Amino acid sequence: MSVHSNVKKVTTHTLHEMKLAGQKISMLTAYDFSMARIVDEAGIDVILVGDSASNVMAGHETTLPITLDQMIYHASSVVRAVKRSLVVVDMPFGSYQGNSKEALSSAIKIMKESGGHAVKMEGGQEIIESIGRILTAGIPVMGHLGLTPQSIYKFGTYVVRAKEDEEAQRLIEDAKALEAVGCFAIVLEKIPAQLAAQVAKMVSIPIIGIGAGNGVDGQVLVVHDMLGINNEFNPRFLRKYNNLHEQMMQSFQAYITDVRSGDFPNESEQY
Fold first, then answer.
1. Structural domains of the chain sorted by starting position, each given as residue range(s) with its CATH number in brackets
2. Whole-prediction pTM
3. For 59-111, how does the pLDDT look when each residue is reduced to its tens digit (9 = 90+)?
4. Which residues form the catalytic set?
5. Long-range contacts of range 62-69, CB-CB < 8 Å, 24 or more positions apart?
């Protein structure tokens, strides 16, 4: 009998209960089977199959190039590994903006082909119609406000958002609109901590922060960043829980040395 056979799955309802109980929600990204299995077994509440796969898995400069089919490939790899976590899949750039019919068919394709549990969409009132359509099909939607990396060319930079009153006010209105349409949670990225805390108090749905301070209902980080695999990315909000870049380098170099010296494989490592 596996450890997992009586594991209670995390659902959107679980997250709502956690917010009510004042329990913080932990969320990390994963893009492949092996990593997702470890993240899930560790007890993470939510796994985000992020369009950040475009950066960390494919080496693109932005999240824009990743396609719907590539997101489904990553998501289905993750879903096969997961026993407990709620798996949320990013809808990639171009799969939902400006056309609610296309948004619905993209979301259905993700759910059917990947087996994911929910989708995540960037934006506020401008995508409300698309969100509404997707929710009508019974697909849970997580919102994403603040710094929305898919809009990098509109903003021209990855700086902290909503520092000005006008933008802050709009963010508050967007959060309320996302709650009203039926989103089950919202990610707030790179906004002032005070504003994020205010939003978390104003809405009844969980607010997950990344670079949004401690006054929210949970946190999300990119797994490759927090493990220190990417050693060139050092924003203020990132806490590195490891330096895998260094550890992996040491392992690979030791292997090279052993192969070259004839030390690997030794007698006990052959047939």
1. 3-240 (3.20.20.60), 243-271 (no CATH)
2. 0.96
3. 999 999 999 999 999 999 999 999 999 999 999 999 999 899 999 999 999 99
4. 189
5. 62/149, 62/152, 63/92, 63/93, 63/149, 63/150, 63/152, 64/93, 64/94, 64/150, 64/152, 66/92, 66/93, 67/92, 68/92, 68/95, 68/106, 68/109, 68/110
